[in-house]
Structures are given as C-alpha cells and as structure tokens.
Write a structure and sequence with these properties.
- This is Putative tribbles-like 2-like.
- This protein has 5 helices and 4 strands, in the order βββαβαααα.
- It has about 160 residues and is mostly helical.
Length: about 160
C-alpha cells in the first residue's frame, strides 16, 4: 500500500502476501511474511499461529495512525528494536487528535488480539460519524500532512523472513 503522487489516494499494490481463506470461519495463519512496520505482536510470537483477521485489524490501526499523525506508531531503524516496540504496544497519540480518534486508535492497536475491535465494530465507531465532508477526521480542521521519511532499516540475521 502506498500513497499516490497526488497525496490523496491510497493505492493497494502487490497482493503476493494476501491469503484467500478457504473457510471464512477459520482465519488461522502461520505465515510470517509482511512489512515490518505493520506486523502485529502475535505474528512476532514464537508460537507461530495467529488470527489473520485480528492481525489485519492491527495493520489497519497502523495505517490509520500513519494517516492521522504522519508517521508510524512504532518505528526504529533496527528491526529487533522495532519488533520490541510492537510487542510492548506502547505508542504516543498527539494531543491534537480528537478524543474519538484517540479512542479508535487505542481500541485497534491493542497487544492482545482478543481485545481489539472487529472490523464491524470499527465501522460502527463514533469517530466515523463525528465529522462533516471535507474536514480532517483527527481534529475537525482541513490540513495538509507533511511528508514522512521512511528510515533505513538495519537487518539482522533471522529478520529476513519478513521480506521473502
């Protein structure tokens, strides 16, 4: 996923890591491929089994945070440190965000997958109904987000499975 040159459209690209679930009731996955900044804590656990839907909700939270704040909620140039931050689930939400935006982010980016909102609950969240057309969902004011620099990542042995 990336932001188009016009800076107002997200583009979904490269579905090589997408999974089509044969049984929609069973979303258990063991695959550990993906973009490190969007990886959920349970994917990093040694058990290796996780809910694909709950992991996707985490990634959606990272996307939403990045869109509202202009940077990743968890970031570090070293993958080991980045993964440690993700496992802890500690992130800072700027005071400039509305209380409803903060509530939604804190409800999605929860370390325990069973505590995260479902996609249905996310769509019903009051944040989606708290603004009018043409205003920012974070503060109610129209504003342009600054471009974000993506840090260079230092790879360690064992971290490369996220890129294969």
């Amino acid at each position: 996923m990336y932001c188009a040159a016009s800076n107002n459209h997200l583009v979904l690209d490269n579905l090589e890591d997408a999974h089509i679930l044969p049984d929609p009731q069973d979303d258990t996955l063991q695959d550990k491929h993906g973009c490190p900044a969007y990886v959920s804590p349970e994917i990093l656990n040694p058990s290796g089994v996780y809910s694909g839907k709950q992991a996707d909700v985490w990634s959606l939270g990272v996307i939403l945070y990045t869109m509202l704040v202009g940077r990743y909620p968890f970031h570090d140039a070293e993958l080991a440190k980045l993964f440690a931050k993700i496992r802890q689930g500690l992130f800072v939400v700027p005071e400039s965000l509305s209380p409803l935006a903060k509530c939604l982010l804190y409800s999605i980016l929860r370390v325990d997958p069973s505590e995260r909102l479902t996609t249905e609950e996310i769509l019903c969240h009051p944040w989606f109904h708290s603004f009018s057309e043409g205003t920012s969902r974070s503060s109610g004011k129209t504003k342009a987000a600054p471009d974000q620099l993506v840090p260079d990542i230092v790879f360690e042995e064992g971290d490369m499975f996220f890129f294969t």
